[in-house]
Write a structure and sequence with these properties.
By secondary structure, this protein is an alpha/beta fold. The protein contains 20 helices and 23 strands. A hairpin with an 8-residue loop joins β4 and β5 (180-186). α11 packs across α16 (447-463). The longest helix is centred in the C-terminal third of the chain and has 20 residues, at 576-595. 47% of the residues are buried.
Length: 612
C-alpha cells in the first residue's frame, strides 16, 4: 500500500509538471524516476536521477528506467548506474530481499536459521554491495558469512557446502567490461540455481521492492548475525582438496620441472590462489605480466577482460617470448574460467579452443583418477553445445558420459544427482572455457583447479619431449577428429529471430522430418537429418539441435545476454582436412538455407573458421 501511495503521488506530481510539448515517452520515465527517488538512499545514484529529471533527458532516463533487470538462473548482470535497468545499491538490496524471502518461506516457520555465504570480486562497488547483502541477511534474522577479502568465484559454492548454507551470493560480472557488475546465486547444494527458482525469485523481488529499513543500507556491517569468513582458512581447505587432482607421482614429477609458464589473472582475483595451487601441486612458479598482475577494476590493458577475446593474451605472450616460456595460463577476472595458449615450434601461438582444452583436461582427469574405482561408476559431462569427445573417450574406456542443457547450472546439478547415486564425477566442461574437476568438491566451473591440471599436463608431456598440441593431435588420431565450427549472426529484431525458428518448425521444403507435431527440415543438401531435439528454454528463447546421417550435429540457439543467434556444430571423422572441409560445406548450407541472413536482416561477424 505504501508503494502504491508513493506511485500515486509521483504520478500526480509528474502529470502536473507536464507541458503540452513534453514527449509522450518522457512521462512514464519521470514517474518511474520519482518512484525511485522515494526509495533510493544512495547519494550518487540519487544525484544522477535528479539531474536527468531536472533536464527532462529522455535518453538518459530511458537508459535508467526503460526496463527492469530480470532475475534469471545466472542471477543479475548489467551496467552500473542508477535506475531499475542497472546494477546499483537499491537493485542489489531489492534482489537480496526477494531472494532471501523466497528461501526463508521455503524453509517454513519451523525451519532452521537462514544461512548465507557472500563473496565479492575486485570490481567497482563489489565490496559495498556484498555489505548491503549482509545487512539484508541481518534484517531478515539470518546468519551471513562474508569473505574477509576478495575471492575467486569458485570459493563461494565451496563455502556454501563447507558452511552448509542455504544460499551463496557472489558479487561479480566475471569477464564483462569494466562498466558492468553482477550478482550470482548458488543453491544449498553449491550449484547455480535452475528453474523454477529463477522465476519464483523474480516474483518475490517484485513483492519486496521497498527496503526493509535504513539498516539495509549499511556499508560497514558489524557482528549481530554477520560473521567474517576467514578467507585464508577456506582457501587452505580448498587447496588440500586439490591434492586429489594430482597423483603423488605427478606432484613429484612437477617438483623437478623447469619454469615454463606465464600466468595472467587479467586484472582479476586469481593470482594468489593460482600461485598457491601451483605450489601445492609441486609446479614451478609462473611468471606474471606486471601490467595485469594486481586486481584493477579499470582493466587498463583491455576493453573486454575475457581471455577468449583477441588481444587479451598479448601482454602474456610478450612476456613469455621475452623469457623463453612456452605455455600461457589465463583466468578471467573472477577466476572461474581458463584459457591456455602454447607456443609452437614455428614461433606462432596456438590458443586452444574450449573444446580442445576440454578434450585435454578430460583425458588428464581420466589418467589421474583413482584406479581402484570401477570405470562403470565414473562419469564425465558436457553441455549440449560442447564437443562430444569425452563420449568417445568413455566409450573406449568404459566410463559414463552425459550431455546436459547449456550451462554449468545444469551440469553441476546433474553431477550432484549422479554423486548421490554413487557415481564418481571425474570432469565436466563447456565450450566457453569452463571446466569442473570432481575432485575439488566444487560443482561449478573453476579456473584455479583447471590451471593446475593444464600445467601438470604440460609438464608431463614436455618431459616426454612433446607438447599439448601434439597430445591433442594424438588423441584425435585415436578417438576421432572432433572438428567444430561455431559462430553466430547478430539480430536486433526479435520478430525476425522468431520467424527463423518458426520456419524451421514448419518447414516448407520437400524433405521433411515430422516430430512432435512439427515439420523440421529433413535434409540439408545431400546430408539427411535423422533426428531433431527442440528444447523449450523459455519465452523468447530458442534452441534446436539437428542430428545428421554423417554423424554431424548442429545446434542453433539464441543468446540469453546478447542479440545473437548462435550455431554450434561438430563432425567426427578420420582425418583433419577431410572432416574440416565436410563440416564447412554443411555450415555454408545452414547459413544460406536456414539462417537466410539477407532476407532476415541478420548481421554477420568475421567469417567463421573451423577449429580442431
Amino acid at each position: 500500500l505504501k508503494l502504491q501511495f508513493l506511485y500515486l503521488i509521483a504520478s500526480s506530481s509528474v502529470l502536473r509538471s507536464q507541458t503540452p510539448t513534453m514527449p509522450a515517452e518522457l512521462a512514464p520515465l519521470l514517474v518511474a524516476a520519482e518512484r525511485w527517488l522515494a526509495l533510493d538512499k544512495n547519494p550518487a545514484t540519487r544525484a544522477a536521477v535528479e539531474q536527468a529529471v531536472a533536464a527532462k533527458d529522455a535518453s538518459r532516463l530511458g537508459a535508467m528506467f526503460g526496463k527492469r533487470m530480470k532475475f534469471g538462473t545466472a542471477g543479475l548482470r548489467a551496467r552500473m548506474d542508477a535506475g531499475t535497468a542497472c546494477m546499483n545499491s537499491l537493485t542489489v538490496i531489492q534482489a537480496t530481499q526477494g531472494l532471501l524471502k523466497y528461501v526463508k518461506d521455503r524453509k517454513g516457520p519451523q525451519g532452521s536459521l537462514l544461512k548465507v555465504v557472500v563473496g565479492y570480486d575486485a570490481r567497482h562497488n563489489s565490496k559495498t554491495w556484498a555489505q548491503h547483502v549482509a545487512a539484508v541477511v541481518r534484517a531478515i534474522g539470518g546468519v551471513c558469512y562474508v569473505f574477509s577479502s576478495i575471492v575467486p568465484t569458485p570459493l563461494v559454492p565451496y563455502g556454501v557446502t563447507r558452511h552448509r548454507a542455504d544460499i551463496g551470493i557472489m558479487v561479480t560480472a566475471s569477464h564483462n567490461p569494466k562498466a558492468d557488475n553482477g550478482y550470482k546465486v548458488y543453491w544449498s547444494n553449491g550449484c547455480q540455481i535452475v528453474p523454477p527458482h529463477d522465476a519464483n525469485i523474480e516474483k518475490s523481488i517484485q513483492e519486496n521492492l521497498e527496503p526493509w529499513g535504513d539498516g539495509v543500507w549499511d556499508e560497514a556491517v558489524t557482528p549481530d548475525g554477520v560473521m567474517a569468513i576467514d578467507a585464508d582458512g577456506l582457501k587452505a581447505e580448498y587447496l588440500c582438496n586439490l591434492e586429489d587432482l594430482t597423483s603423488t607421482a605427478t606432484r613429484c614429477l612437477n617438483a623437478t620441472a623447469e619454469p615454463m609458464f606465464v600466468y595472467t589473472p587479467v586484472h582479476g582475483v586469481g593470482t594468489e590462489m593460482v600461485q598457491a595451487a601451483m605450489r601445492m601441486a609441486g609446479l614451478p612458479a609462473a611468471l606474471i605480466p606486471a601490467s595485469q598482475e594486481c586486481p584493477d577494476p579499470e582493466f587498463p590493458t583491455t576493453k573486454f577482460p575475457n581471455p577468449e577475446e583477441k588481444g587479451v593474451l598479448d601482454e602474456a605472450m610478450r612476456l613469455a617470448e621475452a623469457q623463453g616460456q612456452r605455455v600461457i595460463l589465463a583466468n578471467d577476472p573472477d577466476a572461474d574460467r581458463l584459457a591456455v595458449a602454447e607456443r609452437q615450434p614455428d614461433g606462432r601461438w596456438k590458443v586452444f579452443t574450449g573444446n580442445e582444452l576440454g578434450a585435454l583436461l578430460g583425458y588428464y582427469a581420466w589418467e589421474q583418477r583413482d584406479k581402484a574405482v570401477n570405470p562403470k561408476q565414473c562419469c564425465m559431462l558436457a553441455s549440449r553445445v560442447s564437443s562430444r569427445f569425452l563420449g568417445a573417450l568413455g566409450k573406449k574406456h568404459g566410463f559414463n558420459f552425459e550431455v546436459t542443457l547449456t550451462g554449468f547450472k545444469w551440469m553441476g546439478n546433474r553431477a550432484r544427482e549422479l554423486e548421490a547415486d554413487g557415481k564418481t564425477i571425474l570432469f565436466a566442461f563447456e565450450e566457453a572455457i569452463g571446466y569442473m574437476h570432481g575432485a575439488t568438491g566444487i560443482f561449478d566451473k573453476d579456473g584455479v583447479s583447471a590451471a593446475v591440471a593444464a600445467a601438470s599436463l604440460a609438464v608431463n608431456y614436455r618431459r616426454q619431449g612433446t607438447s599439448l598440441a601434439a597430445l591433442l593431435r594424438r588423441l584425435y588420431d585415436e578417438y576421432g577428429w572432433h572438428i567444430t565450427n561455431n559462430s553466430y549472426y547478430i539480430c536486433h529484431d526479435p520478430a525476425a529471430t522468431a520467424k527463423m525458428f518458426a520456419r524451421l518448425r514448419t518447414w516448407p521444403g520437400a524433405s521433411v522430418l515430422n516430430k512432435n507435431g512439427k515439420k523440421y527440415p529433413g535434409a540439408l543438401g545431400p546430408t539427411r537429418v535423422v533426428d531433431v531435439e527442440d528444447i523449450d528454454v523459455g519465452a523468447g528463447s530458442f534452441m534446436i539441435t539437428f542430428h545428421f546421417d554423417n554423424s554431424a550435429t548442429v545446434t542453433l540457439r539464441t543468446s540469453g545476454t546478447e542479440p545473437k543467434i548462435k550455431y554450434y556444430s561438430e563432425l567426427v571423422g578420420k582425418s583433419e582436412a577431410g572432416t574440416t572441409s565436410e563440416l564447412a560445406v554443411l555450415i555454408e548450407r545452414v547459413v544460406a538455407e536456414w539462417y537466410q541472413p539477407s532476407e532476415n536482416g541478420f548481421i554477420a561477424p568475421a567469417p567463421p573458421k573451423a577449429k580442431i
